[in-house]
């Protein structure tokens, strides 16, 4: 369940990629329903790992992107299956998993653990059946390429600017909870909006916060550190079975309004 916590930061970095930002802006209802992409996509993406037919589902996801292309607001051509573009979306998921371990897990990874975990993310990516050319060969190479993209290629696309605005100031017109009605939505905002903002900005790489003037004070850092510490210590008392059931429940919840053949974890 903890591996979902840096997810908003990962999604923001996806939208900062010119090709992904343009595709989301032009081929989805992002500006009307920014969180719909999360509700629609996350269970499908997790299914490529967890479902028995994960390989077939991964290729289905790839095929959904065949028609996503065009020209962005700066007159640059893009396509969702361009190798570096498609890899960047997955790279943010790889970063997200490592970030969750670094910040929210009480255990630490050895060098051997890191290489094994990175190799697993590469095996995951291979399921999509796309070009492996952009994929770095090891974890150190991945980190170097990831930071280089953050420093040189990410932009404040219109989609990223909108997501940042929502994260900083909230929005009374954006639905956080896909199901449950107005009462659940109000309760979700009250409980989750401020911690979500703290987690989103706190998990972002420092270079991304600095490049795009995302406000972050020493007090914010202290609050984020306290939240991460509470999470690490709290999860020590959560049985693995309960943790796994919470994850399955969350995937069901956010996938409640997706297509009929969405992945539904077994009870």
From TrEMBL:
Alphabetized InterPro entries for the sequence: MPAB/Lcp_cat_dom
Gene Ontology molecular function: oxidoreductase activity
Residue ranges of domain ER-bound oxygenase mpaB/mpaB'/Rubber oxygenase catalytic in the record: 4-230
Protein's UniProt name: DUF2236 domain-containing protein
Source organism of this protein record: Actinomadura logoneensis
